[in-house]
């Protein structure tokens, strides 16, 4: 597929050997961090700056979007325009369904287009941002729909996210096209975005001005330390990406010289190659988090020690993913904004088949490569199997600390292997190659997952905790 973004820095791309789309991505994010710091310093959240903050965020977002996506930006405009018309004129009790069907349909059409014209390759194009825009538009529509429902019919999370009035055009444009998330996201919810623009998300203090009258000012917590930490982490992840991820692709596990090795060597080799593939996502998400934080977006209150938290729009908890002892735990810390979107759009609203519905929606949202569906089907089985293990087996290992210690080690080894194993078909994308990989491992995790689902049914027997409780706990 031909890259549609700017070719202004093609000479730099040629000289350093970095693909132009990746170079433009890096340049745009560095610019967004610098501009975000200026935005935060010069357009502080206050009533007289609200419109300016919407407008500047939107205009700079359009410029960055055109720099990276070129004329493909019209897809974002068309999708956003139709959904805004639906918000304005569609009967409110159907607006969430209309927006969902149109947004997902448009996104699916782009995914199918890529199957024909860019199969098996990845060049930075508008489809990734369309995935984020689809999340924004659908979550906004569902929140607007919840605003007309009876308050007592909403769960605690829906009560905090419900929108009573349809957003004005400039609010809508600022939300969908803001410069912080126009390149790689992640999803920021509408109410969180509005609170960021107005300053309702940070501490307010009453002071007396020169005239003796009290006026409200908004004290912005310092972002320096957290920004430096995330930029240093980004640099470390970039080094790992170039030194490990690019050197050990998933496909290398199918090389004859690797398949001839013993099972322990293959296990370690696959752990390195598969785990390093997650680094490219960690890199993009941590850098995106730094972009958000530089502008002041992402502040999430204070911890018990009075330290500012900057994780409102963080999209991954790296250590928790790598140290998880179950598939569900790994999912809970991976692509967290998408997990929350799936929960709010599907899980909390489906009367039955909640887990299956989440996996189906997630699969369609990601695209239509056959390997994606192999991954999501297996993940569904592993999640169900994990429920059975936690409820029927795990309690026997909690009585003795030493036994629990070895149990935790064993479950971590199995969980990280299962995560890497199930993600293989997602990375390989093609059915035939994925089958070759699973044949090389004798479909071992598939077999174990199916057996566990059969002998350890893990259907929920307890009432699910409200989402807001889970978020606060995390």
TrEMBL record:
It holds the Pfam family MBOAT. It comes from the Eukaryota. It is found in: Membrane. GO terms for molecular function: acyltransferase activity. InterPro entries: LPLAT_7/PORCN-like, MBOAT_fam. Keywords: Acyltransferase, Membrane, Transferase, Transmembrane, Transmembrane helix. This is Uncharacterized protein. It comes from Brachionus calyciflorus. The lineage of its organism: Eukaryota, Metazoa, Spiralia, Gnathifera, Rotifera.
């Amino acid at each position: 597929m031909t890259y549609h973004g700017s070719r202004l820095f093609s000479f730099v791309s040629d000289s350093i050997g970095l693909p132009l789309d990746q170079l433009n991505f890096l340049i745009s994010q560095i610019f967004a961090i610098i501009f975000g710091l200026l935005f935060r310093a010069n357009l502080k959240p206050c009533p007289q700056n609200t419109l300016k903050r919407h407008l500047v965020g939107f205009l700079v977002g359009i410029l960055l979007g055109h720099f990276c996506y070129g004329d493909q930006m019209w897809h974002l405009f068309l999708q956003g325009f139709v959904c805004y018309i639906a918000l304005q004129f569609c009967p409110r009790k159907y607006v969430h369904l209309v927006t969902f069907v149109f947004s997902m349909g448009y996104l699916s059409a782009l995914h199918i287009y890529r199957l024909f014209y860019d199969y098996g390759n990845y060049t930075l194009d508008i489809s990734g941002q369309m995935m984020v825009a689809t999340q924004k538009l659908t979550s906004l529509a569902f929140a607007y729909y919840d605003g007309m429902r009876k308050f007592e019919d909403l769960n605690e999370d829906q009560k905090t996210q419900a929108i009573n009035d349809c957003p004005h055009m400039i609010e809508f444009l600022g939300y969908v096209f803001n410069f912080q998330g126009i390149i790689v996201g992640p999803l920021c919810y509408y109410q969180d975005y509005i609170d960021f623009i107005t300053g309702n998300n940070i501490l307010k203090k009453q002071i007396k001005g020169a005239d003796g009258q009290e006026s409200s000012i908004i004290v912005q917590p310092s972002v320096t330390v957290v920004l430096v930490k995330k930029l240093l982490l980004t640099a470390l992840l970039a080094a790992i990406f170039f030194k490990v991820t690019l050197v050990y692709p998933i496909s290398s596990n199918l090389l004859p010289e690797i398949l001839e090795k013993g099972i322990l060597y293959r296990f370690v080799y696959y752990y390195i190659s598969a785990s390093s593939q997650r680094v490219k996502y960690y890199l993009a998400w941590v850098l995106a988090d730094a972009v958000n934080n530089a502008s002041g977006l992402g502040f999430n209150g204070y911890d018990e020690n009075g330290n500012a938290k900057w994780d409102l729009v963080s999209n991954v908890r790296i250590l928790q993913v790598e140290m998880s002892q179950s598939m569900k735990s790994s999912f809970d810390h991976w692509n967290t904004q998408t997990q929350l979107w799936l929960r709010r759009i599907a899980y909390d609203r489906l009367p039955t088949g909640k887990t299956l519905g989440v996996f189906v929606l997630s699969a369609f949202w990601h695209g239509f490569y056959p390997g994606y569906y192999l991954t999501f089907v297996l993940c569904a089985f592993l999640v169900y199997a994990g429920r059975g293990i936690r409820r029927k087996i795990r309690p026997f290992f909690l009585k003795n600390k030493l036994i629990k210690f070895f149990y935790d080690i064993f479950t971590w080894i199995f969980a990280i292997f299962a995560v890497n194993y199930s993600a293989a078909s997602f990375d390989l994308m093609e059915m035939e190659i994925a089958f070759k990989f699973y044949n090389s491992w004798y479909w071992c995790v598939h077999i174990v997952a199916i057996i566990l689902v059969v002998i350890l049914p893990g259907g929920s027997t307890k009432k699910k905790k409200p989402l807001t409780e889970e978020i606060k706990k995390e």
